[in-house]
Amino acid sequence: MADKVSLIGLDRSALGAALVTAGFPEKAVKMRVGQLWNWIYVHGARDFGQMSNLAKGFRDTMEAHFTLARPEIVTEQISNDGTRKWLLRTGPGIEFETVYIPEKDRGTLCVSSQVGCTLTCRFCHTGTQKLVRNLTPAEILGQVLIAKDALDDWPSTAPGRSVTNVVMMGMGEPLYNFDNVKAALKIVTDGDALALSKRRVTLSTAGVVPMIEKAGTEIGSGLAISLHAVRDELRDQIVPINKKYPIKELLDACRAYPGASNARRITFEYVMLKDVNDSLADARALVKLLAGIPAKINLIPFNAWPGAPYECSDWAQIEKFAEIVNKAGYASPVRTPRGRDIMAACGQLKSESVKERASTRLAAEKLADMQSGQLARMPH
Predict the structure, then answer these.
(1) Among 177, 222, 277, 308, which is disulfide-ready with 202 (CB 3.0 to 4.6 Å)?
(2) pLDDT single digits (tens) 39-49
(3) pTM
(4) Who has greater pLDDT, 54 or 121?
(5) Which of 111, 116, 132 is nearest to 184 (CA)?
(6) 317 burial class (0-12, 13-18, 19+ CB within 10 angstroms)?
(7) How sure is the predictor about 121, in pLDDT bands with cuts at 50, 70 and 90?
(8) What are phi and psi of 240, to 5 degrees?
(9) Are the CB atoms for 351 and 129 separated by under 8 Å?
(10) Which residues are catalytic?
């Protein structure tokens, strides 16, 4: 049935309403919601036939009306370092990427919130792809479910899980898709669902200042800021949203972020761009700028992509920069690039369909130029 309703991403209230609409008696709905919730999010059921403790008649009726389908996996790539990247599709032109990064003490899933992005940050490959649309809660959660399926990471409440952290750092600006991100993360952090602590969830923003306090109050996850420059004139170029919400306003919002403390620091992301933002004067200015904010600083070696306008800072320069930040008392790990060989590293994500369309367009343009040249040389 083409018009089956997906139950993925519905909260308990909406799930109950869907059951009533399908004709289930209201007196049984609360119990059924609890059963379905457990099967979908604790055990990772992909179809109703797996729900072995539920009556067959109930399962058949559910199958007739509803679906638990994940997004379609277009491609899965595994890096030499174990990083995994999935290109997912939920409709024509609706493609997005998610990345799993395994480490010794954790497994981090980098989740997308939009198809494309409106922010055009100059160092970011995703920023070269125009926004297609916001992802729905089902599409955001679908990324988590697919990763857990692939990693055999069910039940979600078991010890030794593979996906221990979720970061909203994939394609898109999460705070421009606030309601859908909030709905999805509520299920990610529900103790009876995907059961991740809010301390294990981080939302990254390029600086949508009016939404930052709202995110702290209503989502309550960790906060990461894509800073990347210490002067407005440079940040205006690198992260153009700075023209709307300059550095002072952004940092004031960070100081007021609900729940920020030394035990729960705000992460400031700083991509290292050679001869652009990597001077030792920049390092000293960064330390001064963040004074009074419970912060840690992630220094990110720039990950190149075709046509990128920047180069990565020299490693010796990154180490000198980090030393200044560390001596000032800030934890400033240099993020080890992961998944570069499959274009899965920070700032490299972009829908494959857009890459394909671009390459097809360039080929067509080249052919048209050749044909035009041949026509020009033909006698008239």
Answers:
(1) 222
(2) 999 999 999 99
(3) 0.86
(4) 54
(5) 111
(6) middle
(7) confident
(8) -60, -20
(9) yes
(10) 97, 346
Residue 308, helix vs strand vs coil: coil
What is the third-level CATH fold of 5-67? DNA polymerase; domain 1 (1.10.150)
Tokens 């036939």 belong to residue: 49
The pLDDT value given to residue 317: 95
pLDDT tens per residue across span 328-353:
999 877 866 665 565 544 444 444 44
**Fold topology of 72-349:** TIM Barrel (3.20.20)
259: left (phi over 0), alpha (psi -120 to 50) or beta: left
Tokens for 222, please give them. Answer: 């960790």
Sole residue written with tokens 């001064």: 288
Q: How far apart are CA 44 and CA 379, in angstroms?
A: 68
Given pLDDT bands bounded at 50, 70 and 90, which one contains residue 143?
Answer: very high
Most confident of 37-41, 130-134, 295-299: 37-41
> In the chain, which segments carry CATH 1.10.150.530?
5-67
Q: Which of 39, 233, 245 is nearest to 155 (CA)?
A: 39
Residue span(s) of the chain under CATH 3.20.20.70 come to 72-349
Q: What is the 3-state secondary structure (H, E, C) of 19-51?
A: HHHCCCCHHHHHHHHHHHHHHHHHCCCCCHHHC
